[in-house]
Every structure is written in structure tokens, then in C-alpha cells.
Write a structure and sequence with these properties.
The structure holds two protein chains of two kinds. Chain A is α/β, with parallel strands linked by helices. Chain A is 45% helix and 18% strand. Chain A has twelve helices and 15 strands. Chain A has a five-stranded parallel sheet with strand order 2-1-3-4-5, with helices on both faces. In chain A, helix 7 packs across helix 8 and helix 8 runs parallel beside helix 9. Chain B is mostly helical. Chain B has a domain of 199 residues. A two-stranded antiparallel sheet of chain B has the order 1-2. Chain B is globular, with a radius of gyration of 19 Å. Classes of the chains: A alpha/beta, B mainly alpha. At the A-B interface, strand 7, helix 7 and helix 8 of A face helix 1, helix 8 and helix 10 of B.
Chain lengths: 369, 296
């Protein structure tokens, strides 16, 4: 019996060890392949760079942090399966991802049900309505698209043609913000067309765009598709002086690779400018040294997200669990970051604010217009 | 704008025709819906892309794409349909096994392409725009229309003017009687699948060039349209598929041009139902199309 007691005590200790140890697990569920790979690949690079730096500086608040990366291949169903796995099999304390609004809308209720904080890059604030466990890294479309709309207005076009993706709510919202600002300023909308994310043939649409002779063309679509629309519109005879504008995806290297000189001059909202501050410069140099290319918006977002999670882990107290992490995430305030104006805070609705900037693509380089 | 849009519609129709002709050819002769056809189309685009990427000229890529897609199509026939045909259960069984073949091919393409959207390097096909009567036509559009017309003419000549065409038509009419006449149906089927695959491969290269986008799933939307086209044209009818491709390309282009986008597919399929109300067997379809029993 005595032996049994020792055995029971030993077993209890053995069983309790994983709970007592300062092991924190971060599950990353983002698409590094398929439609949203243009976001996921640099996003994961940014996260890895941040995690390496935090580990090197021993800055996890004394906790052992393990990060598990998984690819949901731009598929909602896979995102749900992976988040469930992170919560139930891997015992993760927080999930970073998924990428798109459509994915986050599908996975949000699952994360809330499993009571695990989910930190997504989705643009639509509707994803936050699933519950208090959902956080997003991007400012709302109203916040980051507005400077682009106002910049277009300042260029005094008399009319504008809009193209957006209709099977993704995030793109529709971005289109709505631009349309409202333009119509509010008296700019006539001569075309408001929508396409599907899988479309590739824009010849008929291009002819329609060109025949309307717009002063400005706004396209909100994944970068390769946006580039394709602009290339086909140029081939259909789009005036070289037409003001081009896009969404944050237009700040991706993929737009330059896919669009070449056709997309030159496009305006887009930037939450990240490498030369904006000392910290963003240092990040850019470290990123380039590690991955051999300059960081884009999403690399900076990944870096910022991992730093935000690390900050929450540090502030969650000795017992880091899903609940304490959720509270620490929600309490994030004035965290120095490499994006926007340099400080990240969540408001009471868990919407981040960092301050946006309008950028322009000029001769293959991102510059302030 | 109307003339320009009609011209755009004509080019799109050409691509649809190349894609759906192979589809309808296989259906016409075997009464099998080859649902791997979209994957074969994609293979054409991929082969041409990797040829050009590897430093080869576009014409070589085009030829290799046609050969590879044709060969792949023959392989699909041998692996998926030949055994099933002997059981007499190829109608339903063939649909399932061709879905499987399509999945295998797209999965391989997904791995090879790392799921990325691929594109031919800029200037692979020179961007030259011709302007006349207020219209703009790119050299690529002319090439697409020209390639579609030439390939369709070759197919027409092959099927209606050669001994091989007679054999195809003999097997289509009655496989058993054709065998008694000394025709080897397996050989005829292989040739038919090669032709169908080659046309799809050519369409794949043209689409990849024209729309600057090659992905492992690029065949899916075309497969759906091809379905509608061969139903509209009359199952198994080559002239019907040509006519239906033209109708489809035009309706699609004009809908985008003059109506709010988002309605395109609704209008295309609504017009399909309307036409089928008047002509239940398609524009040029025959009553017995789709009826396999009794032909053996």
C-alpha cells in the first residue's frame, strides 16, 4: 500500500509536470500554398524571424515557447480541422491565423467554442463578432482604405471605375469604403464590376473599362489577379494617365512580378514602409539578411503578430493559459511595432490601430506619392 | 464597344471550341464523359510553361504540350475506360474513374507547381496591338483565333474526309459491326483520345498565354462550360459543339459587357435551359445521343 502511495504520488507529479512547466505552445495555421500563399509565405518568414530574435534575447518572459507551423492551403475546411487539432491534440495556447476573412469567418466560431485565442490577418471586423477569443492584426478596411480614397480624391479625377472580387467579403468591404469616399467627394462611379476569385479572362471586362474612359481605375483583388486585370485593360487600350489604385495586396512583390511595368503607378494602402522608422529599417535589414529579399507588408505583419503574441505571453503572468493569454492580448497597448506609425493598441472591440500610409509603386519601387 | 466585344467573344469562343470539341468527340464515339479533360487541358499549359521556363522557344512548348496532352489522354483511356468498356458499365463507372484520373493529374500538377500561380515570362508572346476601324486586336488574339480555326479544320478534315474518320464514325455507329469489318476499336479509341487531348492541350497553352495565369485548377471552370456546351450543341455533335461554343462565348462576353457582372453564369445557364425547352436534344443533337445500349 505504501508503495502504491509513492507510485500514485510519482504519477501525479509526472502527470502534473506538463501543466506546471512553463511550456507555451503557439499554433500557426496559415496558407503557405494556393490562393493566399502570397500572404502566408512572407507572414511565416516574419514570424520565424521575430521568434528567433525573441528567443535569442530570451524575451519570452521566462517561458519555454514552442511554435507549430501548419498550412491550411487556403481552404476553410482545412483551417477548421487544423485549429481543432491545435486546440485538442497539440494543446496550443493560442492560434495565429488563418489569413482570409472567409477562412476566419469559418474558423472563428470553432476557436470560440474551443476557448482558444485566434489571431487572424482577416481584414473584416465581422470576424470579431464570433466572440472575445478572436483578434485581428489588420486595421479595418475603413481605417486603412480611407487614406487611399482621400488620396484619389486629391488627384481630382472626374470619374472612377471599380473592380472587386464578389466571393470574398473583405474585398467587397474595401470596394465599399472607396466607393463611399469617392461618391461623397462627387467623383462619378462609371463602372462597379465584380469578378470571381477563380476568373482569369478579363478581355470583355477590359473593353468595358476602356470604353468608359475612366480617370481612375480601382481594383481590389489578390495581387496576381489585380495585375492580370490591369495588364488586360492596358492591352485593351487603357489610357497611360489613368490613376491606378488597389488594396494592401498591391503592396506585394507578387503584383510587381505578375504585372511588370503595366502596374506601375498604382496607389495602395501601406501599413508598412521599410524606411519609416529605425525599428522598421532594422527589421528590413535583418529580414533581407535571413531570406535574401526585402520584406513586404505581410512579412512585417507576421513579425508584428509574433511580437504581439510574445508581449501577451510576457504579460499573461506565471500561469500562461488560453484565458490569461486572451486577457493579455486584449490588454495590448502602445506596443512598439515596425508597422504603421510604430505603436499597436487594441481597442475595446479588439480592433488594432497602428496608423496607415498611402504608397505608390514607381519603377518597381515602393515610394511615398 | 459592341464590335470590340463581339471580337473578344469570338476569341473566347475559339478557346471554348478547342476545349469542348475533344470532350464531345470522346462522348460522341464512346458515350463517356471524360471528366479528366480539364486536367489534360491544364497539363498542356503546364508543359508549355515549363518548356519556356527551361529556355525552350514557345513553338516547341506548344508542340510538346499538344503531344503530352494527347499522350496523357490516351493513357487515361487505357487506364480508366478500356477495362470498364468490357464490363459494359462505362457510363457511370467511367465518370467516377475519370474524376479519379483528373484528381491524380491535378494533384501531381499541384506538387510540381507548389500550388503557385504560374505565368509565362513577359514578352513570351510579343505584345503587338493592331488597330483598325476603331477596334483593337492583339497579335495573341489573332493567333488564338487562327490556331482555333486551323485545328478545328484539321479535326473536321480528319473525321469527315479520311479513312480514319470513316473508322471513327463506323465504331460510333456500331462497334460490333465495325469489328466484323476488321476495324480494331481500341486503336480507333486511342486515336480519338489523342486528338481530344491534343486539342485540349492546345487550348490550355492559349489560355495560359492569353490570361497570364496557369494553375493546377485552371481546367475546372472550362470543364463546367464544356458540359453546358456539349449539351447545348447536342451530345456528341461536332458542328453542334462549334456552334454552342460560339453562342457561349458571345453570350458570356456580351453579358459582362452590358449587364451587371455577377449575372453572367446565371444568364448563360438560364439561356441553356431555354434552348433545351425548345430543342431538348441540343441545337444539333440527335434523339439517340447518350443511348449506349443496343449499339454493341
Amino acid at each position: 500500500m505504501k508503495h502504491f502511495k509513492y507510485l500514485a504520488a510519482a504519477s501525479a507529479i509526472a502527470l502534473a509536470v506538463p501543466a506546471l512547466a512553463d511550456d507555451v505552445k503557439v499554433g500557426v495555421v496559415v496558407s503557405t500554398t494556393s490562393t493566399y500563399a502570397f500572404v502566408g509565405e512572407p507572414l511565416v518568414n516574419g514570424m520565424k524571424l521575430a521568434a528567433d530574435e525573441i528567443s535569442a534575447a530570451d524575451n519570452w518572459g521566462g517561458h519555454n515557447v514552442e511554435i507549430i507551423y501548419q498550412d491550411n492551403r487556403s481552404d476553410k475546411q482545412e483551417a477548421i480541422a487544423l485549429i481543432t487539432r491545435m486546440a485538442q491534440s497539440e494543446n496550443a495556447d493560442i492560434v495565429v491565423g488563418p489569413i482570409a476573412t472567409s477562412e476566419a469567418m469559418a474558423t472563428g466560431p470553432v476557436a470560440v467554442d474551443l476557448k482558444i485565442p485566434m489571431f487572424t490577418t482577416a481584414t473584416s471586423p465581422a470576424v470579431l463578432e464570433a466572440g472575445p477569443y478572436i483578434f485581428k492584426s489588420t486595421e479595418t478596411a475603413d481605417a486603412y482604405m480611407a487614406p487611399v480614397g482621400e488620396h484619389i480624391v486629391s488627384l481630382k479625377p472626374s470619374n472612377c471605375f471599380l473592380v472587386s472580387i464578389r466571393d470574398n467579403e473583405g474585398y467587397i468591404r474595401q470596394r465599399n469604403v472607396i466607393r463611399d469616399i469617392l461618391t461623397g467627394a462627387g467623383v462619378e462611379i462609371v463602372g462597379d464590376e465584380s469578378i470571381l476569385a477563380a476568373d482569369t479572362d478579363f478581355t470583355a471586362l477590359s473593353t468595358k473599362i476602356v470604353s468608359n474612359e475612366p480617370d481612375c481605375l480601382f481594383v481590389t483583388a489578390p495581387p496576381e489577379q489585380a495585375a492580370n486585370i490591369i495588364i488586360q485593360a492596358r492591352q485593351a487600350g487603357l489610357d497611360g494617365d489613368t490613376i491606378l489604385a488597389g488594396d494592401s495586396g498591391a503592396g506585394s512583390q507578387k503584383l510587381i512580378d505578375a504585372g511588370g511595368s503595366a502596374v506601375d503607378g498604382i496607389l495602395f494602402p501601406a501599413s508598412f514602409v521599410a524606411s519609416a522608422s529605425d525599428s522598421s529599417k532594422a527589421f528590413s535589414e535583418a529580414y533581407e539578411a535571413e531570406f535574401g529579399k526585402a520584406p513586404d507588408l505581410w512579412a512585417a505583419t507576421g513579425y508584428t503578430m509574433m511580437n504581439t503574441v510574445a508581449n501577451a505571453i510576457r504579460n499573461a503572468g506565471d500561469d500562461v493559459n488560453r484565458e490569461s493569454l486572451r486577457e493579455a492580448m486584449a490588454a495590448t497597448k502602445d506596443l512598439p511595432v515596425v508597422m504603421g506609425q510604430g505603436m499597436l493598441s487594441f481597442d475595446e472591440n479588439r480592433i488594432p490601430s497602428m496608423g496607415g500610409i498611402v504608397m505608390k509603386l514607381e519603377d518597381g519601387k515602393w515610394v511615398k506619392p | 464597344m459592341l464590335a470590340q466585344q463581339l471580337l473578344n467573344g469570338l476569341v473566347v469562343s475559339g478557346v471554348y471550341a478547342l476545349f469542348s470539341l475533344g470532350f464531345t468527340l470522346v462522348f460522341g464515339i464512346q458515350r463517356i464523359l471524360n471528366l479528366a479533360h480539364g486536367a489534360i487541358f491544364m497539363t498542356g499549359a503546364m508543359v508549355a510553361f515549363y518548356t519556356v521556363k527551361g529556355g525552350g522557344p514557345l513553338w516547341l512548348g506548344f508542340i510538346l504540350a499538344i503531344l503530352a496532352s494527347g499522350a496523357l489522354s490516351v493513357l487515361v483511356e487505357i487506364v480508366c475506360f478500356r477495362r470498364l468498356r468490357k464490363t459494359g458499365d462505362e457510363e457511370f463507372g467511367g465518370i467516377i474513374s475519370s474524376i479519379g484520373a483528373g484528381l491524380v493529374i491535378t494533384t501531381i500538377a499541384q506538387q510540381v507547381s507548389s500550388t503557385q500561380v504560374l505565368r509565362f515570362p513577359f514578352e513570351t508572346f510579343p505584345v503587338v496591338i493592331f488597330k483598325f476601324w476603331g477596334l483593337r486586336v492583339s497579335m495573341l488574339q489573332l493567333f488564338m483565333a487562327g490556331a482555333a480555326i486551323i485545328l478545328v479544320l484539321i479535326l473536321g478534315y480528319y473525321v469527315y474526309r479520311t479513312a480514319f474518320g470513316r473508322r471513327i464514325r463506323a465504331v460510333t455507329d456500331n462497334e460490333h459491326a465495325a469489328m466484323l469489318m476488321g476495324i480494331n476499336p481500341n486503336f480507333v479509341y486511342s486515336q480519338t483520345y489523342f486528338l481530344a487531348g491534343a486539342l485540349a492541350g492546345a487550348a490550355g497553352v492559349l489560355v495560359g498565354l492569353a490570361f497570364n495565369s496557369i494553375t493546377f485548377l485552371m481546367g475546372e471552370p472550362y470543364l463546367m462550360f464544356a458540359f453546358a456546351i456539349i449539351i447545348l450543341g447536342g451530345l456528341g455533335s461536332i458542328p453542334g459543339a462549334l456552334l454552342a461554343s460560339l453562342v457561349f462565348g458571345m453570350v458570356q462576353t456580351l453579358t459582362i459587357a452590358y449587364l451587371p457582372s455577377g449575372l453572367t453564369d446565371t444568364i448563360i445557364f438560364a439561356s441553356l435551359f431555354l434552348i433545351l425547352l425548345v430543342r431538348p436534344h441540343g441545337i444539333l443533337g440527335k434523339e439517340d445521343a447518350g443511348n449506349l445500349r443496343g449499339r454493341r
